[in-house]
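Friendly challenge for the regulars: who can give me the structure tokens for this chain first? No prize, just bragging rights.
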Amino acid sequence: MTAFTILGEGSAVEVDASTDGGPVRLSVEGVEQALGWELTEEGFCLGPVCYPLPPDTDLVTDAGIDLTRLAALIDRPIALDETEGAAYLGVSARERSQELELLYAPEFTLPDLDGNLHSLSDHRGKKVLVAYASW
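First reply, four minutes later:
Bragging rights claimed.
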């Protein structure tokens, strides 16, 4: 087991993971701690939403839960870097399309040149121009 950081939903959680040359596997407790998903008789559940386990799969084994396959099951894109011991799980395409239908920009917070934080929601109802440059 090695320490692995799971990023998602605005948080970073460090859990134990097994990588033994195969897929990154987390314990049931690690998945619940990092992502909130619980393994039940119905499958993986988060509140009222449950995804049944696919038949004949090695998603869940004695070695743990395959993180990449779990991300696919719950419809979340994943960026995985085993050498750095980190993974980011994005928002599902279904959730993003629902937000786009509302025609609202996603919430974000950025600092100004003086380091003061400004959230998009602070300016709701006003015209806002957001410019970004990596330099």
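The chain is about 20% helix and 35% strand. The helical segments are 28-35, 67-73, 93-101. Your move, everyone else.
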